[in-house]
Design brief:
38% of the residues lie in helices and 16% in strands. By secondary structure, it is an alpha/beta fold. The chain has eight helices and seven strands. Strands 1, 2, 3, 6 and 7 form a five-stranded parallel sheet that branches. A two-stranded antiparallel sheet has the order 4-5.
């Protein structure tokens, strides 16, 4: 699904990066935003910038039902996970609100998580984290503050099965990190020991 020409043009995200949000940072230390940010997420990593071929691939997977893209995209995520030494006992995909899940018919983050779980030999739990607040898509919000407000109280952990576990949250794209941070907050409230985020692409 990704030809040699497309693979050569992939917008890869190389170090140095901010150790918290994963965006490019020349110094390799926490960026000014993360220094001020009181976050629940322990860190975010991504193999690509959100643009070019990867933007098109995400849109095809997310909105055009091209689910066959999930396996090759998950391979990139597996490589990123291994290269960065991200701690993980279990993968948890960012859930969709039931209304949006009915509209789309599937959760693209769950497809990526299932493929990544197979490649990395890690369990995938889709029954612990739920989206309880229907909000506007993050792509339609204008500011970082608005995105974080949009996600406030949006997720709930449905049990304590993951207590003490190192959870790796899986999503397709991270923009302001508000969604991943809200998920991490819900998981940590249930007792997980750490919550990292791994996405296919990061807006920078």
């Amino acid at each position: 699904m990704l030809c040699a020409k497309c693979r050569r043009s992939l917008p890869r995200l190389f170090p140095p990066i901010c150790p918290k949000c994963g965006r490019p940072q020349a110094s390799g230390v926490a960026c000014p935003h993360c220094i001020r940010w009181s976050s629940s997420i322990d860190g975010i990593r991504a193999p690509f910038r959100f643009g070019g071929v990867i933007r098109e691939a995400v849109h095809q997977l997310k909105y055009r039902n091209l689910r066959i893209l999930a396996p090759p995209l998950a391979e990139f995520m597996r490589d990123c996970m291994e290269q960065n030494g991200i701690p993980a006992d279990v993968l948890v995909p960012v859930p969709l609100h039931p209304k949006r899940l009915r509209e789309r018919g599937y959760n693209q983050s769950e497809l990526l998580a299932l493929e990544l779980g197979r490649l990395a030999s890690l369990p995938v739990r889709t029954d612990q984290l739920a989206r309880c607040k229907y909000a506007s898509p993050q792509a339609r919000t204008n500011s970082v503050e608005e995105r974080h407000a949009n996600m406030a109280g949006a997720f709930v952990c449905k049990g304590s099965d993951l207590k003490g576990s190192r959870v790796l949250l899986i999503d397709d794209v991270s923009t302001s990190a508000a969604t991943l941070d809200a998920c991490a907050g819900a998981l940590k409230a249930s007792g997980v020991s750490s919550a990292w985020g791994l996405v296919l692409a990061r807006e920078v």
